[in-house]
Amino acid sequence: MPTTQATHAVQLHTRPRPPQALPEGGWTVQAVQDLLDRPLLDLVHEAQTVHRAHWPDASIELATLLSVKTGGCPENCGYCPQAAEFDTGVKAQKMLEVDEVLRNAQAARDAGATRFCMGAAWRAPKDRDIEKMAELIAAVKGLGLETCATLGMLEAHQARALKEAGLDYYNHNLDTAPEYYQDVVSTRQYQDRLETLENVRAAGVKVCCGGIVGMGEAPVHRAGLIAQLANLGPYPDSVPINSLVRVPGTPLADSEPIDPFDFVRVIAVARITMPKARVRLSAGRQQLGEAVQALCFMAGANSIFYGDKLLVTGNPDAQADVQLLARLGLRGYQATTSVDDTLPATA
Ligand code: SF4
């Protein structure tokens, strides 16, 4: 099968098409694949046109992610250094205390972050974990930050409890296309993921859901992932797109890295198919380099994970990010959440 970049090597001067509307009946994998196969500059131009129409302030959201319960996870996601069965050097730790989480959240806010995401390496939280998380969420919300959590599979009553605590977003990624999912993780089903997303939405919590590329998937699987996301009813409020960080000891450590221009294509297609979503450059940003990140912003990315660490893997230095945004003339998004709108802090 030809690579996407080879496919368009001789088509650089085709005329731009008008921005795509949502196809009747939703996005087919073929329609998304057709977008991915377009000449890169045409695709980026189209994505930028859609982006400007829906995001006139052109701000970049800064979201910070903290691991509040690291390692020892019983799942076997092939990309994850926190799975207990992989020998990655990550040790299982106890859940962080409220004070420590608050210190991190305050530092993130002081550095300009507007959203604070808390991740825990669980297959699914127990109800007593939800009680502890509710405490953390209320405390972080009390700082005037938007709150997000990623805790694994969630039941309906647990989603409601987190909403009551002040949770704004719940992250639960689809990871990849349904057809490739079992090559990445076998301890749960795609349908499990979809059910958690339904529980989250039903509780009134906004959905943060994306995936990972560079896991050895074929281009059609990238198209399948984007079609799945875009066809969720409605599509996610935030769409994190990760480029695999190949951690030694994980089954996917030797995956062929994705061509950076193909990564840009995925960002552009996410923007075109989900025009009002925050499309976030997530894991793997360190490997992209500044020029490719700039191209991603051009293609419609308008959120980054911000802070020197992403759960247990590296992330660009926060100061370097501030400088990059300044050099590009981009500015951080100012959250509309105010301390007065929020629940009182518990610590
Ligand atoms: S469920 Fe989360 S923490 Fe557990 S192995 Fe999968 S990605 Fe890692």
Task: Write a brief structural summary.
The chain has 347 residues and is an alpha/beta fold. 39% of the residues lie in helices and 13% in strands. Helix 4 packs parallel to helix 5, helix 6 (156-165) packs across helix 8 and helix 9 runs parallel beside helix 10 (260-273).
Summarize the structure in words.
There is one protein chain. By secondary structure, the protein is of the alpha/beta class. It has a single domain (26-331), classed as Aldolase class I (TIM Barrel, Alpha-Beta Barrel). It contains 12 helices and 11 strands. Strands 5-4-3-2-1-9-8-7-6 form a 9-stranded parallel sheet. Strands 10-11 form a two-stranded antiparallel sheet. Strand 1, helix 4 and strand 2 form a beta-alpha-beta unit. The N and C termini lie far apart (57 Å). The model is unreliable at 1-16 and 335-347 (pLDDT under 50). It binds iron/sulfur cluster (SF4). Iron/sulfur cluster (SF4) binds next to loops. Residues 73, 75, 77, 80, 82-83, 121, 152 line the site of iron/sulfur cluster.
The figure for the number of domains is 1
CATH architecture: Alpha-Beta Barrel
* Approximate helicity band: 25-40%
Largest sheet: 9 strands, parallel
Might you state the CATH topology name? TIM Barrel
Task: State the total count of DSSP E strands.
Answer: 11
Please tell me what the overall shape is: globular
Distance between the termini: 57 Å
Q: What is the typical, i.e. mean, pLDDT?
A: 88
Describe the secondary structure blueprint for this structure:
Blueprint: H1 4-7, H2 29-36, H3 40-54, E1 61-69, H4 98-110, E2 115-120, H5 127-141, E3 146-150, H6 156-165, E4 169-171, H7 178-181, H8 190-202, E5 206-208, E6 211-213, H9 219-231, E7 238-243, H10 260-273, E8 278-281, H11 285-298, E9 303-305, E10 309-310, E11 313-314, H12 318-328
Parallel strand pairs: 1-2, 1-9, 2-3, 3-4, 4-5, 6-7, 7-8, 8-9
Antiparallel strand pairs: 10-11
Helix pairs in contact: 2-9, 3-10, 4-5, 5-6, 6-8, 9-10, 10-11
Iron/sulfur cluster binds next to loops.
